[in-house]
Specification:
This protein is an alpha+beta fold. 27% of the residues lie in helices and 25% in strands. The chain has three helices and six strands. Strands 1-2-3-4-6-5 form a six-stranded antiparallel beta sheet. The longest helix has 13 residues.
Length: 120
């Protein structure tokens, strides 16, 4: 079993060194943002992220990932969830997280949102 606090610290140490990355609570987990857009979240012992195609399909088909479902039965868009290994190390996840941040940086936001976060 992994230690959530140590995994969260390891994620912070790695991801908060990347340009324009910040963190805040999301889904009761620890969200990572580039600018104001979330690209990953540490939630219930796994790291969920927004991957581009075909990386998303690759992660799902090779058994590394499952659809991210913070609400049971309701997948969160095209997001996938990758488990942190038993050692609690995030080293194997860094290439996937790099793909996620690059994808979010170049993908235009979907829909316009007001200051409250609700669609206009």
């Amino acid at each position: 079993m992994t230690n959530d606090a140590s995994v969260q610290s390891e994620l912070d140490a790695a991801l908060l060194t990347w340009a324009d990355v910040s963190t805040r609570t999301m889904f009761g987990g620890h969200g990572f943002f580039v600018g104001d857009r979330m690209f990953a979240v540490y939630y219930r012992g796994a790291v969920a992220m927004k991957l581009p195609e075909p990386r998303r399909t690759e992660a799902l088909h090779c058994g590394l990932a499952t659809p991210f479902t913070p609400t049971p039965g309701r997948p969160f868009g095209d997001w996938v969830s990758l488990s942190v290994d038993e050692s609690g190390s995030i080293g194997d996840l860094l290439p996937w997280l790099q793909a996620a941040i690059e994808h979010v940086r170049i993908t235009p936001p979907t829909g316009s949102r007001s200051r409250s976060g609700r669609p206009r």
